DNA sequence: CGAGCAGGTTACCAGGCGGTAACATACGGT
DNA sequence: ACCGTATGTTACCGCCTGGTAACCTGCTCG
């Protein structure tokens, strides 16, 4: 009945955990390590060791390495989509939407699990690729619709612009997380900068 | 003395090639296949088979899989940098520079070898990651300097904007290569669209 | 013509990895 | 107290893959 000191990784206590607790712990450890080393850079044995557990325990909770990775990825994707959509739906002011969505990307990229998504482009698994592309497509669809509405563009053009904005936000966010230390530039300021860039750029397509 | 029918891949003729010819052929085949399947998705044996040759021949020309891949990647990176720099140095009109650079990204992304670069984010190899990041840093530096000059921004801000523009161009270009079929949108038009977005966005930072 | 060498092949090895069968042990209910 | 079951371990397998040693062959040139 006591919490029994759940150990993060490679800790000593070594107590038995309930199935649910163990599963949760494994998901957390796996998320971090896969994000850091990539799918091929991490073996199930390494993962088990890091979690302070033996390999078969992993297979008690997940049917295969691939499925474990995919599950983690889907989760990260869902998290990202949710944050973006929240930013888009939280207001009716398009300027605020742009800024909110960019901020959402920045927040998400700070989470190391975001690497699971970016790393997935390695074409390795078609399912992984598809999952990411589907998510991108859906958000581009949402953004594109807003753009199309107020600029009178066709779907193709709107999709292109939406994708361009996603690229702008993600790459800038990734750069920022790697360079905020040496480039005294706080997140809020960076987000404001990019919003300005994006918003003014979009302005050139305004219908009215 | 005759050309002896160099065979692209898995062809029947099976004639001996000179070391140089063979090396060149292997580089071409490897470039295509690595781009398509990724580093981990292609074995040396598969590669050898595809080239119509046995495995040791590969090792006669390249010391290891890793080095072969890295060499191909470095080559792709050099190609990309060269095209971008050409676009930036070809004119003094900044508007034309933006459009030229975006067009260069579009051209480059159409080359399937570009996948070698994007796929390299899989953190697999630190050297691969570093090579890509260095290239990105160098072009961001070049672009950032132009931006900084005409907008009076500090290095950090200029770097952020430059990175954002790179993200905009690459992601849009990748999207376009995947969707040009279903979204009747020709390249020139797409490039013009994105240039407009980028240029107007940059306008908000103009000094004067 | 015949020998030497560049170009190419077969067959193999060692190590790592995903995955599993068989066995061991802590813990809660009665 | 004790037993059943959920939890966990040791030890192993088979396969694939990067890489190599040993051997073959046909073109070229004296």
Q: What can you tell me about this protein's structure?
A:
2 copies of one chain form a homodimer. Chain A has 208 residues and is mostly helical. Chain A is built from 9 helices and no strands. Chain A has helices at 19-37, 44-50, 55-61, 65-89, 94-110, 114-119, 126-151, 155-179, 187-203. In chain A, α4 (65-89) packs parallel to α7. The first copy, chain A, is elongated, with a radius of gyration of 20 Å. At the A-B interface, α6, α8 and α9 of A face α6, α8 and α9 of B. The structure holds a DNA duplex (30 and 30 nucleotides).
Architecture blueprint of SSEs:
The structure is a homodimer of 208-residue chains.
Chain A: H1 19-37, H2 44-50, H3 55-61, H4 65-89, H5 94-110, H6 114-119, H7 126-151, H8 155-179, H9 187-203
Helix pairs in contact in A: 4-5, 4-7, 5-8, 5-9, 7-8, 8-9
The structure holds a DNA duplex (30 and 30 nucleotides).
Summarize the structure.
Two copies of one chain form a homodimer. Chain A has 208 residues and is mainly α.
Unreliable stretches covering 5 or more consecutive residues of chain A: 1-12
Tally of contiguous helical segments of chain A? 9
* CA-based gyration radius of chain A: 20 Å
Which structural category fits the helices and strands of chain A? mainly alpha
Per DSSP E runs of 2 or more residues, the count of β-strands of chain A stands at 0
**Topology order of chain A in helix (H) and strand (E) letters:** HHHHHHHHH
Measured by DSSP, the beta-strand proportion of chain A falls in: under 5%
Average of pLDDT of chain A = 90
Please give the largest β-sheet of chain A.
Answer: none
Largest interface: A-B, 49 and 49 residues
In angstroms, what separates the terminal alpha carbons of chain A? Answer: 65 Å
Share in helix of chain A: over 70%
Oligomer, anyone? Answer: homodimer
């Amino acid at each position: 009945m006591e919490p029994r000191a759940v150990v993060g990784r490679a800790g000593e206590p070594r107590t038995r955990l309930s199935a649910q607790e163990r599963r949760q712990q494994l998901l957390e450890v796996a998320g971090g390590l896969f994000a850091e080393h990539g799918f091929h850079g991490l073996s199930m044995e390494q993962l088990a060791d890091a979690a302070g557990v033996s390999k078969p325990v992993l297979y008690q909770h997940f049917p295969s390495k691939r499925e474990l990775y995919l599950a983690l990825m889907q989760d990260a994707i869902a998290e990202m989509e949710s944050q973006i959509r929240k930013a888009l739906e939280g207001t009716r002011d398009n300027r605020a939407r742009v800024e909110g969505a960019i901020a959402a990307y920045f927040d998400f990229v700070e989470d190391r699990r975001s690497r699971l998504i970016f790393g997935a482009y390695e074409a390795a698994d078609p399912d992984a690729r598809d999952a990411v592309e589907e998510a991108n497509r859906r958000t581009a669809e949402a953004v594109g619709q807003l753009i199309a509405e107020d600029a009178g563009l066709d779907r193709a053009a709107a999709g292109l612009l939406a994708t361009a904005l996603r690229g702008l936000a993600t790459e800038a966010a990734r750069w920022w997380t790697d360079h905020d230390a040496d480039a005294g530039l706080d997140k809020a300021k960076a987000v404001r900068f990019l919003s300005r860039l994006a918003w003014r750029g979009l302005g050139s397509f305004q219908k009215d």
